[in-house]
Write the structure tokens for this entry.
Amino acid sequence: MSSAEEEKELTLVDHLVELRDRIFRSLIAVLILFLGLFAFANDIYTYVATPLLNALPEGATMIAIDPTSPFFAPFKLTFYAALFIAAPYILYQAWSFIAPGLYQKEKTIAIPLFISSVLLFYSGVAFARYILFGFVFAFFISVAPEGITVAPDINSFLSFALAIFLAFGVAFEVPIAVFLFIWVGLAEPDSLASKRPYVIVGCFVVGMLLTPADPFTQSMLAIPMWILFEAGIIAGRLIRKRQQEEEDATQGSA
């Protein structure tokens, strides 16, 4: 084996070792947060379930069909809460791993994108918890047939809540995706704007696939997605204008 091949192999091994270390640090961070939050597992579950509890008729409560649910449902939610809180640190580890391979110009754009993606994901989850849940649970309970006592199972609620949190967190990343498409030259702002009718229909289709089968919840996801799509186009126009100015300056100096 030549020295050049040995150097290349060592470099690959070094990268793999670094990747392993950063994954390990991320897992340790999640574990530490989980252990710190575990004592408050029931409080965390109650906090997430408060919109549903407030919407229940007087005297009604949630139930646990599975005997193990009172332990495992808060346990599972606490793990996801730890993962949620650790997300910025995990993304920082990912950024630290890929940053050395980026040009300075790419780093200038990538850092705000990382920060924005975290904030948008948190915003999507907060939108679901503080705005959507109150309306959705009140609606579902209000349409229950007469004589039916609404008593949601804690496991079913947890599955519903986690799915909605993930759906809204990912959906709020739309402007990042639009911005990246424009930044790398895969699409132009005017071209994306001309496809607005198709995008609106697509938002409602995504809302239908990611939320319960009722028009209200679908609209609560689709409308913010459309608004965020428009925000992505605006950001894309700004970066495209900046790129054009830099090209003009380069050509002028030449």
